[in-house]
Amino acid sequence: MVNDMDYKFDIDYWGGQFSVPCSVVSEYLKTSDGNYVKVLLCILASPVRTVSSEYISQVTGVDINVVDDAVIHWTSLGVIKVQGLNSSANTAALPALAGTVPHKDSLSAVSEKKKESENKTERIITIKYTQKELLEKANSDPDLKKLFDEIQSFLKKTLNGTELSKLVEVYELYDFDVPTILITAEYLRLIGKCTVNYLAAVLRDWNEREINTYSEVEREINRLTEYYDYENMVRRCFEMPYKLTKNQKAYAEKWQSMGIGEPLLEIAKEKCLDGTTGKLNFGYIDKIIVEWNKNGVKTPKDVETADEKYRNSKKKFVGSDKDNSYSVDKVENMIRNFSSEGGDKR
Question: pLDDT tens across 80-102, in order?
Answer without folding.
Answer: 877 655 433 333 333 322 332 33
